Amino acid sequence: MSALPPIPPCRPADWACPAPLDWADFVQLRRRMVLDHFKWDPQVGDAGALAPFPIVLSASVLHGLADLAEALAAETDLAERELLRRPDLVGRLGLPRPIRRILAERSAEAPPVAARVIRFDFHPAADGWRISEANSDVPGGYAESSHFPRLMAEHWP
């Protein structure tokens, strides 16, 4: 397996959180996310899923997290290929028996794909950056990770 790049420091001084948008601007931005950019879950229960303010990362943190995401994606690909090559390792994953059986029956060839995309969700925590999930099986989250920053940037050029 490959060595991961250093994890960038997780210091609040390395990012900024400007004041929230005024309510009317935020309602309009939220509406644009829903109607123009397919954000189908702008809230979960009573909690909004979109923040009314951006988190602006320093260039060094942004590049550090991007490098880490690329290395983690490469590591994931290597692990998947090893599991396809060595089905005897599948039992070590702690997966339910029906899933283990399906994985063990798969061919040693990875299925052909036009593109492979993984989106890692990094979050600042008291003890450093943490990943809450890595989305590699569904296209969800791209509205937040692409359109939402662009719409926010219109208010903070």
Question: What does this protein look like?
Answer:
The chain is an alpha+beta fold. It contains 4 helices and 6 strands, in the order E-H-E-E-E-H-H-E-E-H. It has helices spanning 23-37, 59-85, 97-105, 142-153; strands at 15-16, 43-44, 47-48, 56-57, 119-125, 128-135. It has a two-stranded antiparallel ribbon with strand order 1-4. A two-stranded antiparallel sheet has the order 2-3.
Please give the structural blueprint:
Layout: E1 15-16, H1 23-37, E2 43-44, E3 47-48, E4 56-57, H2 59-85, H3 97-105, E5 119-125, E6 128-135, H4 142-153
Antiparallel strand pairs: 1-4, 2-3, 5-6
Name the features:
alpha+beta, single chain, two-stranded antiparallel ribbon, 15% strand, two-stranded antiparallel sheet, 157 residues
Q: What can be said about this structure in brief?
A:
This protein has 157 residues and is of the alpha+beta class.
Distance between the termini: 41 Å
Structural class: alpha+beta
The H/E string reads EHEEEHHEEH
Which percent range fits the helix content? 40-55%
Give me the side-by-side strand order of the main sheet: 1-4
Q: What's the rounded overall pLDDT mean?
A: 87
What portion of residues belong to β-strands?
Answer: 5-15%
Largest sheet: 2 strands, antiparallel
